[in-house]
Amino acid sequence: MMPTAHRRLLFFLLAVSSVASILFASAIGSVSLDWSQWQAAITDSSSEHGELIWRLRLPRAGSAWAVGALLSLSGCLMQVLLRNPLADPYILGVSGGASFAALLGMTVGATAAIIPGLAWAGALVSILIVFSLARGEGPWSGTRLLLTGVVTASGWAALISLLLTLSPDSSLRGMLFWLMGDLSYARFPLWALVVLLLVFMACLGMARSLNVLAMGETTARLLGEPTGKLLWLVYLLASILTATAVSIAGNVGFVGLIVPHLMRLIVGSDHRILLPAAALFGGLFLVLSDTLARAILAPRQLPVGVITALLGVPLFLMLLNRARVKQ
Q1: In angstroms, rounded to a whole number, what is the distance separating the alpha carbons of residues 311 and 17?
Q2: What is the rounded CA–CA span in Å between residue 229 and residue 76?
Q3: Interior/surface letters 16-38, b for 16+ CB within 10 angstroms, e for the rest
Q4: 72 near 199, Cβ under 8 Å?
Q5: Angle formed by the axes of helices 255-267 and 4-27, to 10°?
Q6: How far apart are CA 130 and CA 28, in angstroms?
Q7: CA separation for the pair 239, 124 (Å, rounded)
Q8: Does 108 or 280 have the greater pLDDT score?
Q9: How far apart are alpha carbons 246 and 311 in whole angstroms?
């Protein structure tokens, strides 16, 4: 277990790096600002560069941090829930329901302001479908939950393909960007930060139970944990985190899969330490990825999901090879 002093230093570095990444993102883009221009823009929001930073770049960077933290926290919970290190936030169909509702809104001409609300509503419908179908009779079954989620996700994918086929060409580009993960229309995510804080506090309060649950359901039951209620609570919290992230940025892949792995290698498997470390690093990772997506082909912008996939695939293969060598 990591010593207390080292933990505090790690959390401090991650917190400072998160703030620094957001400030760095506000200065980088198709219009790059030097130090004096950036400083003047920060102090005067009504100036030309001030409008750029305060109305576009800072809200987008804040959204990227929130989405990264949400997905990383959700990934930690999903890996405990399914007791599978390859589980990610999108595995149980929540993102499919959110994506279908958001794309349906784009198809009928809904404004960008209400797309997040539609996505959250679609995610809620998917949560209810999976919850009601997987609950069934008798004791909890992680296998039944997984199968129900995978089948539900496949159903949503079919409906999404149908929407893309029937959609007009004028809206198809925006829909595809959103499916790949896009923060172009993100606003300051105050509500998402509130959701993140509330769920994080709930998860931290049950960190000991998560540690026990990660050892197996039988072990958890023998140690007195109410596994049935605990597993459904973990599923619900992970789904809320995923729904909130998808409603802001669409499907941003690999963050909820890679970040928990990396943090587990650094801080260990104690969820009292892993959860805050993963949330902080996940936010930092996605802010830097989105900054790269905006700057690499400026003035053109890439979907941030493309960058996270390009970074996540080799990183994940390295982690798999590391695990194989240890075995």
Answers
A1: 19
A2: 18
A3: ebbeebbbebbbbbeeebeeebb
A4: no
A5: 140
A6: 42
A7: 8
A8: 280
A9: 20
Amino acid at 58: L
Copy the structure tokens of residue 37. Answer: 């221009």
Contact 267, 273 (CB under 8 A): yes
pLDDT exceeds 90 at position 281:
yes
Residues 6+ apart with CB under 8 A from 196: 66, 69, 70, 73, 241, 244, 279
169-180 and 94-107 are packed helices; what angle lies between their axes, rounded to 10 degrees? Answer: 160
Q: Is the alpha carbon torsion for 231, 123, 312, 203 positive or negative?
A: negative
Contacts within 8 Å (CB) and 24+ apart, 154-163: 155/93, 155/96, 156/93, 156/96, 156/97, 156/99, 156/100, 156/126, 157/96, 159/100, 160/96, 160/99, 160/100, 160/103, 163/100, 163/103, 163/104, 163/107
User: Is the domain defined by 4-326 classed in CATH 3.30.70.260?
Assistant: no
State residue 52's pLDDT score.
79
pLDDT band for position 322 (cuts 50, 70, 90): low
Looking at per-residue confidence, does 170 or 193 come out higher?
A: 193
